Amino acid sequence: MKLCLFIILLKLVFPCLDNFRWDTMGAFLDKPKMEKYNSHGEGNSLRYGLSSMQGWRVEMEDAHTAVIGLPHGLDLWSFFAVYDGHAGSQVAKYCCEHLLEHITTNSDFQTALQENASVDSVKNGIRTGFLQIDEHMRTISEKKHGVDRSGSTAVGVLISPTHVYFINCGDSRALQSRAGAVHFFTQDHKPNNPLEKERIQNAGGSVMIQRVNGSLAVSRALGDFDYKCVHGKGPTEQLVSPEPEVYAIERCEAEDEFIILACDGIWDVMANEQLCDFVRSRLEVTDDLERVSNEILDTCLYKGSRDNMSVVLVCFSGVPKVSPEAVKREAELDKYLESRVEEIMKKQGDEGVPDLVHVMRTLASESIPNLPPGGELASKRSVIEAVYNKLNPYRSDDTDSASTDDMW
User: What is the distance in angstroms between the CA of the first residue and the CA of the last residue of the chain?
Assistant: First the structure.
């Protein structure tokens, strides 16, 4: 009822919001769905692991692609991508199945390969693939006698034997770690960015509450055809552009460590350096890339992310190796946290068993050494909760879905 009154009030104050796509804001579950889809693989001197989770959202609208060894004579090339859908999953799903094909088969890309894969021509071929699939999806949608209103961001990497081509369209993000630090990351396409805002206004639109026409929170995306119908403007001049930014980074075998591709549900709660440091610390205690990917999602959930979450972790030969010292520190940290939970629960005495919120807040107020950088206490929520549940088998389930943000 309160939400309905809020929407009515907004529409009275801002009549232009009559066409506001409230579905882009999403709806939430009573508790998050933490079941995960996992996959992994290796080849071309690469290893990858991926994880995706619905989380608090009512629907799962993310999709992903992971292919090592590409068709059309590109055996030594690989492609990875994450698609973050909104207002439906149709565009994200279609892109996950067909975007790579549109990139590798278009004439510009094929010509680039005949020219010994010059960097600029490959970048142009990738751009052409995006524009082609967007136009193709529009045609399919119109033939169904109704425009599909869903859209999707896309972030990916096309890895050749000599270069990594970072591809971004929207506000998902890619990050590369090299020589122990963040080496490169893509720039988010937000409506309030000066160049994006200029294009939107030139197409007759506006940026309100950091959204295109007060509605869509990204300024570049595939799909979203409601925002691509300004007459006299080309496909890259519309309110929302399907054009990706493509960056080519020359590979450095001795220093390249890993690449992270993730939707904004990850970046909403983790800064670039935080996530980079967290992943590096996890790679020092396990070489299971699915496990590392799962820990990223769980940590972000407990840090307060309310979105679908997907992450692809691609590792080069220079990735950090498992360290016996790091494994030992991790085991000691887990043991310390278990003992502290026991102490906190016993200390309550006659007051009864404290709830999990109290336990987490108490630990958060303490200086605990050797917590994983970037993840901090949130990354150890599962350890804390496991011992809490063991000591309190008659607990209420009310705290099971509480985020760490709720706990301090």
Answer: 29
Judge if 184 and 215 occupy the same domain: yes
74-86/163-169 β-pairing: unpaired
**Predicted model pTM:** 0.90
Half-sphere exposure of 252 (CA within 13 A, CB side): 10
| CA dihedral for 377, 378, 379, 382, sign (positive or negative) | positive
Q: Based on the domain organization, do 294 and 329 belong to the same domain?
A: no
Domain range for 179 = 23-315
On whether both 292 and 354 belong to a single domain, the answer is no
The DSSP string of 182-236 is EEEEPPP--TTSHHHHHHHHHTT--EETTEETTTBS-SB-EE-GGGS--TT--GG
> Model confidence over 217-237: pLDDT tens digits?
999 999 999 999 999 999 999
Write the pLDDT tens digit of every residue in 276-318.
999 999 999 999 999 999 999 999 999 999 999 999 999 999 9
